[in-house]
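Good morning,

Attaching, inline, the backbone tokens for the sequence recovery test we're adding to the shared suite. The designed sequence is right after.
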């Protein structure tokens, strides 16, 4: 069975990290990635089924691991070697189409949702959409809140959609860098889309806040009620805690690494910072599974417009290089098309 595998290697990780995550280095023979045949996995117990993947999206967390940016906090929680890719739609051996819920707890989940009535391309985004539904419910925006979503990659755009659908606020503002991202943010429910360079000024006007410009960066007296930070980088996190109002909430949705953030803003503004990791059961929805909520909501969003281009597994070097520059190239979710491997 052909598979792309990730092997733990401290020298390879150091080399890729030193290159700044250069895709030519991160996918080279000296990297942690290897393409080759692996044995088909045995079914671990009765009730398990073999899934033949159709599409597998390339997640930001995959790129962080491949590019040497991932937090080492996660290393002892990871089993090596592993096959990257958890945004998967596929078919069972009887032809039934399924979406994978990859994060298994101590007890195998007792949920068997039907695959949504949407194309494979849209179904491949059910997993990240479930992450964003969980984030939206963690943030818990009300109809009187001004909400800002920072970042408009896959997670940022799906967070816009999730907030709009599950916790619609008074005003929903997206911060997006590239033209395609701006168009999609509006289509998915943002009331306004602003460029990163204009964030402080535009949020100031939207919230009637006062802007103060410091030596290193600005801050607002007032600001957004809730900010969803969907980038996971130091600059974006530092901005988020400075344009969220005193006593407001910052939800960390984007996967961070070892990022330096000035905690003085969090302390002085008495902010609540919430992590939003993956999905599970949602107390604010009577304990329903996040995946169920995402599966029900996805068809009306037409998520297939966020997916592409598609690459064969053999072209993984090109796919990863493209995914690392997806926003600049006008793409959101780059994915592997594995349907040909079933022939």
């Amino acid at each position: 069975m052909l598979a792309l595998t990730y092997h733990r290697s401290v020298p390879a990780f150091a080399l890729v990290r030193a290159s700044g995550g250069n895709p030519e280095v991160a996918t080279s023979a000296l990297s942690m990635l290897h393409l080759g045949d692996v044995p088909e996995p045995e079914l671990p117990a009765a009730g398990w089924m073999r899934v033949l993947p159709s599409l597998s999206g390339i997640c930001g967390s995959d790129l962080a691991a491949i590019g040497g940016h991932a937090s080492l906090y996660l290393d002892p929680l990871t089993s090596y070697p592993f096959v990257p890719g958890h945004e998967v739609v596929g078919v069972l051996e009887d032809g039934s189409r399924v979406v994978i819920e990859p994060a298994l707890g101590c007890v195998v989940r007792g949920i068997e949702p039907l695959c949504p009535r949407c194309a494979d391309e849209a179904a491949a985004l059910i997993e990240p959409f479930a992450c964003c539904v969980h984030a939206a419910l963690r943030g818990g925006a009300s109809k009187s809140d001004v909400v800002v979503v920072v970042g408009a990659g896959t997670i940022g755009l799906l967070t816009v959609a999730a907030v709009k659908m599950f916790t619609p606020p008074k005003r929903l503002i997206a911060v997006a860098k590239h033209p395609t991202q701006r168009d999609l943010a509006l289509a998915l429910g943002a009331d306004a889309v602003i460029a990163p360079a204009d964030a402080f000024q535009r949020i100031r006007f939207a919230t009637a806040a006062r802007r103060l410009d410091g030596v290193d960066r600005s801050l607002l007296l007032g600001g957004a009620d809730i900010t969803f930070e969907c980038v996971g980088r130091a600059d974006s996190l530092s901005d988020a805690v400075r344009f969220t109002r005193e006593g407001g909430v910052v939800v960390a949705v984007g996967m961070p690494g070892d990022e330096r953030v000035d905690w003085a803003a969090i302390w002085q503004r008495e902010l609540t910072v919430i992590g939003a990791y993956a999905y599970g059961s949602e107390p604010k929805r009577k304990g329903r599974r996040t995946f169920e909520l995402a599966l029900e909501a996805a068809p009306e969003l037409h998520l297939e417009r966020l997916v592409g281009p598609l690459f064969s597994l053999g072209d993984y070097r090109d796919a990863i290089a493209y995914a690392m520059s997806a926003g600049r190239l006008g793409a959101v979710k780059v994915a592997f098309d594995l349907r040909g491997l079933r022939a």
